[in-house]
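Reopening this ticket.

The earlier resolution said the output was attached, but the attachment link was broken on my side. Pasting everything inline this time so it's all in one place.
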Amino acid sequence: MTYSRQFLYRLFAGLLVLIAASNVSFAGDAGRDRTQVGHSISIAPGEEVTDATCFGCSIRVRGHVAGDVTAFGGSVVVEDQGNIGGDATVFGGDIRLDQAVSVRGDVTVFGGRVRRDPQASVGGDVTNMGGPGWVFLIFLAPFLFLGMFVAAIVWLIRRLLRPAIPLAA
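Inline output:
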């Protein structure tokens, strides 16, 4: 069915745009926050940002992030004495913590791996839910339920709008 597949692609693209637009427009300290869609973020040594969020790209931290670092569909690399004051969260990618870096909060990875140097400092918990099953559960399962919901609504509307056929006498 080509029609339903095109509809789902457009719905998925619209949701991604909505998520990206809402994340940018509700940023509290937009001058120091870094949010990107499809373009990797690099925080240079000596540079300080509040939060870093990336959709479909990667984040490289060599400076200081006062808040959280979050990557959807990309990786996070903390190197060259970079530090994160909050949590580091990755959905569908890896995180690499090099020597002499610090994360004061939690490190959480869904659908990827944690590569951590023994000298890297993590103040909170390290949680790794690796493997493609978690990516399916987190990203694709909600769209499957949404697709089933939309299909049910379309079926119901078509059934209600179907003309009544008179019974033969």
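Reporter confirms the inline version is readable. The radius of gyration is 22 Å. The chain has one domain: 7-23+33-161.
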